[in-house]
Structure formats: structure tokens, C-alpha cells
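Final report, results section. Input specification for complex C-07:
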Amino acid sequence: EDKVVQSPLSLVVHEGDTVTLNCSYEVTNFRSLLWYKQEKKAPTFLFMLTSSGIEKKSGRLSSILDKKELFSILNITATQTGDSAVYLCAVIIQGAQKLVFGQGTRLTINP
Amino acid sequence: NAGVMQNPRHLVRRRGQEARLRCSPMKGHSHVYWYRQLPEEGLKFMVYLQKENIIDESGMPKERFSAEFPKEGPSILRIQQVVRGDSAAYFCASSPDTDLRNTEAFFGQGTRLTVV
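Structure output:
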């Protein structure tokens, strides 16, 4: 069965800290990995990673994929209270039109 | 261009009633996906539809659940004879006509179903 596992499940840090969120996967036929941020309701897209070792960056957020070790990390530097959210990792299976999600990491940034 | 619209946002049903959840995809999108999110869990794929066709329903429970995406109107996820375990947030996503790339699968705000 295709599986995506995120860690930690929950993380509380102070504003200004740097955090690293982890996502590992075991799937039959990997195509891409995606990161989403979920605040109150709808998940919003952050990154899609298809190739190993190429860092994607957007402001204070960055992410990288390791296809040999089957994991990805999402880094957030200089965290702000607005970064508080659930961060979801999902994998697209080759040939299937669906996302397999991990259980999410709940990140809380305290002022 | 309005985003993916789901309604209602909140739905309360008694056990045994029917729940109908609606999803209007973004303009120009003809691919619709339904996901379910149980409390403190990630989203679980339920069904993928194109106009008038169910393409992949591998995540749909075998009984009581059905989905449609008619030629005109929104996609509907229908749950008959609801039970407490159906309480969850149901998200719809849509993507464009030309090619299914999940980076362009935009999510709606979700419908939170509570079965009492």
C-alpha cells in the first residue's frame, strides 16, 4: 500500500526560529512530491518536487527531495506567527490521477 | 475568476439521513477530485471525475457513497444513511481541461459534515 509519513506530527517554536519538517514515502511508482499549507480550510499549494537534489525556494520557505532515500524536507527560516498551520506532504503516483497525503505536521509559532 | 466553490460550508445531519455536498470547479476546469479529511489526519483520496464520467473511484467506500459530475451543474458527493463515522471535512479540487497536473489542482474551502 502506498504510504506517506510526516514527522513530527506537531511542533511548537518561537518566532524567528528555523524549522525543518520531514516527509518520507513508500510508493509503487513515484512521480512527484508536493507540499501544501493548510490554515483554516483549503490546502494551498507550496511546492512540487520531481527531481532529486534540486532545491525549490519561495521566500523563507525551501524544500528538497531525495529520491534515493525516499524523503523530502520543508525548511522555514525566520518563522513568523503567520506560518502557523498544518503542513501537508503528498505524493503523485505515476499513472494515477490522485494525491496520497501524509497525516500532516501541525506547526505553531509563538510570538 | 472564482476559485473552487463548495457548499454548504457546514452541514449537520442526523444518523440515517442523506448528505449532498456540492462542488463547482474553477471556470474552464473539467477534472474534479474529492478528498476526505478525518480529524487530525491527512486528506484521503475518494474519487476522480471528468464531465459525466467517473475515472477513478478507488477511494470511495463501497456502500452509501456516490459521486457524479453532470454535463451541466456542480459535482455532487452523496452520502446515504449517514453514520457518525462519516463526520469529516470533505474537500473538492479541480484542475484544467488540457492536462491533469496536480500542481494545478486547486482546492475548495471544504464542507464540514457533522453527523449527530
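The two ends of chain B are 36 Å apart (CA to CA). Chain B has a mean pLDDT of 90. This concludes the modelling results for the funded period.
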